[in-house]
Amino acid sequence: MESTARTFKKNAKQALADTRLRDALDKLSDGFPAKRRDAAARLPEFDDLRDAARDIKQHVLANLGFYLEQFEARVIEAGGAVHWCRSAAEARTTILRICKQAGAKTVTKSKSMISEEIGINDHLAAHGVEPIETDLGEYIIQLRHEPPSHIIAPAIHLTKGQIADTFRDKHRHLQADRNLEEPRTLLEEARGELRRKFIAADVGLTGANMLVAETGSIVLVTNEGNADLTYSLPKTHIALASLEKIVPTLEDATTILRVLARSATGQDMSVYTTFCTGPKRAADLDGPEDFHVVLLDNGRTKMLGSEFHDMLRCIRCGACLNHCPVYKAVGGHAYGWVYSGPMGAVLIPNLIGLDEAGHLPNASTLCGKCEEVCPVRIALPRMLRAWRKRQFEQEKTAFVSRAALKFWAALARRPWLYRLAVAAPVAVLAALGRDKGRFRWLPFGGGWTTLRDLPAPQGGTFVSRWHKENKP
Amino acid sequence: MSDARADILAAVKAAMPGADEGKEGARQRLANHRANVIPARGRLGDKARVDLFIREAERVAATVARVSSLAGVPREVARYLARHNLPMSLKIAPDLSGNTIPWTEQTLLSVEEGAANGTEPAGVSRAFAGVAETGTLVLLSGPGNPTTLSFLPPTHVVVVAAAEIVGDYEQVWGRLRAEKSGPDSRFMPRNVNWITGPSRTADIEQSLLLGAHGPQRLHIVIVDG
Question: Which residues pair with A211 in a beta bridge?
Answer without folding.
Answer: A218, A246
